[in-house]
Amino acid sequence: MPRVFTAEIAGNAFLPEKDPVSAEMLSQNAQFKLLTLKPLSEITAPEPGQFYMIQAGTANDPLLKRPFSVYGLQHDCLGFLYRIRGKGTLSLSQLREGDTLQVVGPLGNSYPVPSGDFIAVAGGIGIASLLPFMNKYKKRAYLFYGAMKRDELVMLEEARELSKEAFFTTDDGSYGQKDLITDALRSFLSASQIAHQALRIYACGPAPMLKALSVITNAGGIVCYASLEEHMACGIGACLGCMVKVKIQKPEDRDKNKEWEYKRVCKEGPIFSLEDIKW
Ligand SMILES: Cc1cc2nc3c(=O)[nH]c(=O)nc-3n(C[C@H](O)[C@H](O)[C@H](O)COP(=O)(O)OP(=O)(O)OC[C@H]3O[C@@H](n4cnc5c(N)ncnc54)[C@H](O)[C@@H]3O)c2cc1C
Ligand code: FES
What we know:
It contains five helices and 16 strands. The chain is an alpha/beta fold. The protein folds into two domains: 3-107, Elongation Factor Tu (Ef-tu), domain 3 (Beta Barrel); 118-229, Rossmann fold, CATH 3.40.50.80. Helix 3 links the parallel strand 9 and strand 10 (163-170).
């Protein structure tokens, strides 16, 4: 059950650089932080894919909490991997150890259990949602992780360690293959033919990546679960501010085609079957 609780900041640090980088990339990770929260009361353990609404800043500005996927639960502390984007995440990045925050969660659904090996497709900070899932099912993921450039790829060492096989792409070629991650996946699927086409795909990333992915999965009839990153106001299903149009099968109409309906990403999601999403 989601709960409102107070948490103390146990750490809010820029990510340490572990991968070798060349001299001009010294600004690496200046925009990515790992936030560790120590809940001040008992909490419900989250499942990979679930998220929390976290107060951004100590005053009421910004007023609204922001959604973040749970990245880890260790020694009763909740971990969140986040990218500084706007006012809320900037305020969050300025909080210090010992500050307290209001947090709501865990919220939303979680990734369905994989039946065997699977494919994980992450775009940018979408890796934050997929790494805990890959940690739960170690060495079972063929990971496809892409970003625009090298300093937007984080936790590479961990990503490699948890994967069965990992593929990296950047749009500018500054790390891994110079390609879009969806194109790398397309090549992998066509080269590996039937064996890998039977694998389920779990994805999290920006909407254009998910849209391109849906073309591949729809054409190949591949089951794909995607976590959507919609803007959220309440996070608990009350404001209807995070609606997406999805296809649903009504129980009473099993013999008919699926129908379009609006669903709340915070309540019925954030994970949906990719083939059911209207882009
Ligand atoms: C279920 C869920 C899980 C998420 N998990 C994470 C996570 O683990 N780590 C992380 O860094 N971020 C995550 N996000 C995105 C995060 O919530 C936003 O980056 C954050 O709310 C931005 O707040 P802000 O005040 O800093 O930026 P704002 O000032 O609100 O926005 C700054 C810029 O970012 C864009 N933006 C804001 N929110 C989103 C969004 N949801 N999707 C796309 N663009 C957006 C705005 O359009 C604007 O251009 C998640 C979002 C959802 C819905
Ligand atoms: S954010 Fe309010 S209903 Fe989803």
